[in-house]
Amino acid sequence: MRTPVTSMIIDSHVHLLPDRLAAKIRKFFVDRGSPRLLYPYECDAALGELRRAGIARCWSLPYAHRGGVASGLNRWMAETFAGDPFVVPGATVHPEDDVEAVVREAIEELELPVFKLHCSVGKFAPDDRRLDPLWRRVSDTGRPTVVHTGSAPEGTATEEEVRAVGRTAGRFPSARIIIAHFGAPAVAATLGLLRQTEHVYADLCPVVADPVELTRASIAGLERRILFGSDTPTVAVSIEDSLERVRAWRLTAQEEAAVLGGTAEDLLGAAPPTATPPAVSARTGA
C-alpha cells in the first residue's frame, strides 16, 4: 500500500496574462476551430478554476510573439503578482529584443524567477544564438526556462526541433531547461534528451486536446525530471484529468510528489523571490 501523498500540487505551466492579450489568444484558437477550451481566459476567473482543482501554486508563463513587447509584459507580470503566494510570475524575451537588457531587467530589477520562450508563436528556433545572453544569465542564476519548441502553428514539435533544444543544453550545460508539452508529438526524442543530459526537464501539458502519451516504463528513472502542467486556460483537457493521468502511473509516493510539485519547487530554489515594485498595475492592463 502506498503512503498517501500530501505534498502540494504545483502547476508549472499556466498562462495568466493581461485581459486584452488573453482575449486575442483565445480568439486565435476559436477562429481556427479549436476544441472547446474548458477555462475562462480572464485572470481572476482562471485562478479560481486552478484553486478549485486543488492546485496550491502555479507558474504563470508569458511569451513574446515579436520583439519589443517582452519588457512591458514582464513588468506587468511582476507588478500584478508581486507578493502573491499562489502565482509565481514568469518572464519572457524575444530574439529580436535587446536580449541582454530585457533579461537583465527581468532578473535584477523585477526579480522574476522563471523564463518562458515560445518558438512557434515567436517564429524563432530554440538554438537561436541571439538568445545566448539569456542562457548565460539563467545558467548563472539557476532560473528555470520553459521552452515551447516547434514551428507549427498548432504548437507541435519535431524530433529535429527537440534536438535543437539539446544543442542549446550542450552549449549551456548548467541551464535548467524545461521542454513544454514534453515536445509532443516528438516524445521519444524528448525522453532520449532527458536521459542524455543532467539539467533538461519536461512538463506534461496537453497540446490543447491531446494529452502527452507516456507509460510508466518509458519514464522509469526520470521521475524527478518531469513537471506537472495543465496549460490553463488554453486547454481542452481538465486539470483533474491531467492529474489523474499522473496518478495512474502508480509511482511511489515520493516520485509522485516530485512530479506534482516537488521538482518545480526544487527548480525555483536557486531563484530569489519576486520583487515588490513601487506600484501595482490593474490585471486588465496591457
Order of helices and strands: EHHEHEHEHHEHEHEEHH
Contiguous low-pLDDT stretches (5 residues minimum) are 1-6, 275-282
CATH fold call:
TIM Barrel
Distance between the termini: 51 Å
CATH top-level class: Alpha Beta
In short:
The chain contains 10 helices and 8 strands. It has helices at residues 19-31, 43-52, 70-80, 99-109, 119-122, 132-141, 159-171, 187-196, 239-247, 253-268; strands at 9-14, 55-60, 87-92, 114-118, 145-148, 177-179, 200-203, 226-227. The chain has an 8-stranded parallel beta sheet, sandwiched between helices.
Give the tags.
286 residues; alpha/beta; TIM Barrel; 8-stranded parallel beta sheet; 8 strands; 13% strand; globular; disordered N terminus
Question: Can you tell me about this structure?
Answer:
The structure is a single chain. The protein has one domain: Metal-dependent hydrolases (TIM Barrel, Alpha-Beta Barrel). It is built from 10 helices and 8 strands. The chain has helices spanning 19-31, 43-52, 70-80, 99-109, 119-122, 132-141, 159-171, 187-196, 239-247, 253-268, and strands at 9-14, 55-60, 87-92, 114-118, 145-148, 177-179, 200-203, 226-227. The N and C termini lie far apart (51 Å).
